[in-house]
Design goal:
globular
Length: 165
């Protein structure tokens, strides 16, 4: 593991990684902590802000130039911006089940699934966490993360943690 690769990366990548990591941790806390509290609402606003910054910073990252300098992953960035807006609108309108669905999808798809794909060989996060080597263990780690995402999506569909307002 070498953080020097991250320190040498472009500022947009550094911002993207830092905010994605913060969103991952803060989002995990929000998903397990009591819902409807002042703390939940305050941290939720911060989390949405961090998700928006993470998404916007991705538009300045062009390592996979497939379509006019962008890649299919940028579609996920657009969807994250839309999903963030929908989560806020649903919460403000008191549509908590809808809010929970949007937030769960943002967490599992925009953070966990996208994060799993950053671990593919040749990508910066793969090099940062696993080094330059190619091996089955790396692919196993990615597969396990995708299984966690699938289990998380199943948990959300079963109702997840109920709203406690």
């Amino acid at each position: 593991m070498s953080f020097s690769l991250l320190l040498k990366a472009a500022p947009a990548i550094q911002i993207h990684v830092a905010t994605a990591f913060l969103a991952l941790l803060l989002g995990a806390y929000l998903l397990i902590a009591p819902k409807g509290t002042k703390t939940h609402r305050m941290l939720g606003r911060i989390w949405i802000g961090v998700m928006v910054v993470t998404s916007l910073s991705s538009f300045f990252i062009h390592s996979l130039r497939l379509y006019f300098g962008f890649s299919p992953i940028h579609i996920l960035s657009v969807m994250t911006l839309i999903g963030s807006w929908q989560a806020v609108v649903a919460a403000r309108a008191g549509r908590i089940a809808e809010h929970r669905r949007h937030v769960g999808n943002l967490y599992s798809l925009a953070l966990l699934t996208a994060g799993a794909f950053t671990l593919l060989p040749g990508r910066l996060m793969h090099k940062l966490l696993f080094g330059e080597g190619q091996g089955q263990v790396h692919l196993l780690a990615i597969g396990m993360l995708l299984v966690v995402v699938a289990l998380f999506q199943w948990w959300l569909r079963q109702g997840g943690q109920r709203h406690k307002a």
